[in-house]
Amino acid sequence: MPGLELADHAPDREGRVRAVLGRLVRPALVLPALVGIGAFVGAWQIVALHNRYLLPTVPEIARSLWEQPHLYLRDMLGTLRETAVGFVASFVVAFSLAVCMAYSKIVERAVMPLAVVLNVTPILAIVPGLTVAFGLGLTPKYIITGLIVFFPLLINSLIGLRSADPSALDFFHTVHASRWEILWRLRLPSSLPFLFAAFRVCVPLSLIGAVVAEFLAAGNASGLGSLIAVAQSQSDLAVIYAATVVLAALGLLLTLIVTLVERSLLSWHPSRGRRG
Questions:
Q1: Of 30, 63, 82, 193, which has the maximum CB count within 10 A?
Q2: Could you tell me if 55 and 47 are in contact, meaning their C-beta atoms sit under 8 angstroms apart?
Q3: Mean of the per-residue pLDDT values of the chain
Q4: Cα separation, 168 vs 182, whole angstroms
Q5: If you write DSSP's letter for every residue of 131-180 in order, what string do you get?
Q6: What is the three-class DSSP state of 274?
Q7: What is the pLDDT of residues 217-232, one digit of tens each?
Q8: Largest CA distance in the chain
Q9: Could you report the per-residue pLDDT of 190-221, keeping only the tens digit for each?
């Protein structure tokens, strides 16, 4: 019955999520990672004990995180906000342009050269102009973060939208489907593997972009990049590396979220059934 089918979807979805989490925390995967992290931390501690001006010790980093959690949490949320706004705005613009380019060669010929020029232009070169135009607030940070991830989002969106099965596309044309129906029911589902491939790269990259933007246009705004810049001026190595640890943890968390969402939404895709 239809009602029973709808009721059965939720347990199936929960089962898939549990299966994904189970694969991520398998001892065969976790144990080597723990050994590698332990070896890295041990080597770090040895070097730090022999040269206190080069690296802070692991207890010093942990103490900084323990004694000032509100500071790191506040700045982490600031960086996360810049990352999210810059990434989402860039994706909306990139995907919208990709849709137009997928349907029109003229639009592609007009937009693609500009996108390539933007991609090869060093972002550092336009930061002074952005700060002059928009000040030292959040706007330059959003723009810088978005520009860093714009080109890969545009290219993957365009390739994904054009990856629809030709025979399926012919069928949609045969039944006189509208462009909207073809986009929603065929091109968008076909593009999802390409979009998530871009997300896996661009989500961490947007985090890097946000931190770079905070370095270059610090102002008075919060953010881990701004915190690191202030700590650098004070030669506070413990705060610098504690903020770096928070950034690494945040990047790992965002990547894990993207992976879980991808595996949940793309369980139908052939690539999900391949092994080793």
A1: 82
A2: yes
A3: 83
A4: 10
A5: HHHHTTSSHHHHHHHHHHHHHHHHHHHHHHHTTS-HHHHHHHHHTT--HH
A6: coil
A7: 666 567 888 888 888 8
A8: 74
A9: 899 999 999 999 999 999 989 988 887 666 56
**Counting Cβ atoms within 10 Å, is residue 106 exposed (0-12), middle (13-18) or buried (19+)?**
exposed
Query: What's the CA angle centered on 83, arms 154 and 93, to 5 degrees?
Result: 30
DSSP character for 191? H
The CATH architecture one would assign to domain 60-273 is: Orthogonal Bundle (1.10)
User: For residues 247 and 209, is the Cβ–Cβ distance under 8 A?
Assistant: no
Rounded CA separation 26/132 (Å): 51
- Residue in this structure with the two tokens 């270059």, named with its chain if needed: 216
Q: Which residue has the tokens 């931190």?
A: 211
Chain centre to alpha carbon of residue 195: 12
DSSP of 173-185, one letter per residue?
A: HHTT--HHHHIII
